């Protein structure tokens, strides 16, 4: 006489991310159970959310034409952020004159408070609303194009280094004890002007319209008083140089070399600043 042994109860499979949920559907990649909330459609069957994220991290990120990391959306986040910051700072200037005093750049205070080389680029003349309006309009016209071509990080690097170069160039033309203050994003904006000309030429496009804009603004800088044409010049040269550097295949395709080039322009600007205000002062 024979008989079968009773079969031991098999524990029901549960989702690793949600242990309170029973799931008989398994991920095609890792074979772990996946509840409906953790299932993602795949070419065959489903994959769990963890495997999908791991695969996304392993995939190489798409690059922009300028070699930067492509953003997942086409929104010019950096351009908008700069405009918002400048707008908020301008409102602060209208509220209290301390904002201007603490951020404006002047030769006599530049060595003791060197951060003004950049903070001044986010301030604008509080009694001249057209100052900020024209700069933000120009930024909105050329910023998104360059941000898309370079990538967000490289675009921000170009903007800040152009602002730095503009501030330093302005100071090079000033006596070391000058108390004349200067503010505005014009140096950085002219850096974008120079960069967009180089990029358009690199892409084989006509850059005459932007060259005309640069020429008109250059004339205005000499005709209208209290315009820091020196900052325009410094930003323009720095922006064009950086765009030319980032357009070269070696710098474009190698992030380390590209950022080394951006850092080199920043270091050169600071070296010129130190030469006049520390070594020769």
TrEMBL record:
UniProt-listed GO biological process terms: proteolysis
SUPFAM superfamilies (alphabetical): Rhomboid-like (SSF144091)
Topology within the bilayer: Multi-pass membrane protein
Residue ranges occupied by any Peptidase S54 rhomboid domain in the UniProt entry: 112-248
InterPro entries linked to this entry: Peptidase_S54_rhomboid_dom, Rhomboid-like_sf, Rhomboid_protease_S54
GO MF terms, alphabetically ordered: serine-type endopeptidase activity
Subcellular location: Membrane
UniProt keyword annotations, A-Z: Hydrolase, Membrane, Protease, Transmembrane, Transmembrane helix
Primary location: membrane
Record field: transmembrane: 70-91, 121-143, 155-173, 179-199, 206-223, 258-279
Cellular component terms (Gene Ontology): membrane
Pfam families: Rhomboid
Similarity-based family: Belongs to the peptidase S54 family.
Protein name: Membrane associated rhomboid family serine protease
Organism this protein belongs to: Marihabitans asiaticum
